[in-house]
Design brief:
The chain folds into two domains: 120 residues, no CATH class; 43 residues, no CATH class. The radius of gyration is 19 Å and the shape is globular. By secondary structure, it is mostly helical. The chain contains nine helices and no strands.
Length: 166
């Protein structure tokens, strides 16, 4: 789920493909043939605008939205719609929110926001011999309270409250 790499230092989606085989493996369906795909090698802006055009709330290829709203943050929010939703939460413009996700603080907050708003902590049914393990069940139930306390709906931290106030 974390897209930022093992060292959490890759806070922006890497769209600089240098080989045709790499590009085709990930984005091959966006090109009619190899000759067309080759035009997008080492062209991150051009590639993002192609592969993210007319989806995820983005405009067409010429709008520049694909690159503007490429993946950023620990979980890498992607697409104008997702950034608009996050921007509203942190009381920033969509452009400011997208850029803020490139910072360590913004990357962490956007990741926590994503996990919370996408119900990633919803109780999961555990299958196994003899039912659920009580220790892991207690841990999974308490983890959201411990790790993401500032995103709780009943009591927000001063950090998030400050963001909302501007």
């Amino acid at each position: 789920m974390v897209e930022a790499g093992l060292t959490f230092s890759e806070l922006e989606e890497n769209l600089r493909y240098t080989t045709l085989s790499q590009l085709k493996k990930i984005f091959g369906r966006h090109f009619k043939d190899d000759q067309e795909a080759e035009q997008f090698l080492r062209q991150p802006m051009k590639l993002a605008n192609r592969v993210y055009a007319n989806r995820l709330g983005n405009g067409d290829e010429a709008s520049g939205d694909g690159y503007r709203y490429r993946g950023r943050g620990l979980i890498q929010l992607t697409g104008k719609s997702e950034y608009q939703e996050f921007a509203k939460f942190i009381n920033m413009s969509v452009e400011e929110a997208a850029e803020w996700c490139n910072t360590p603080e913004g990357a962490a907050v956007s990741g926590c926001w994503y996990l919370k708003t996408r119900n990633c902590f919803a109780p999961r049914r555990q299958l196994g011999f003899g039912g659920a393990n009580r220790a892991s069940q207690r841990q999974s139930q308490s983890e959201p309270r411990r790790s993401y306390r500032f995103l709780k709906s009943d009591a927000e931290s001063p950090f998030v409250s400050g963001l909302r106030q501007g």
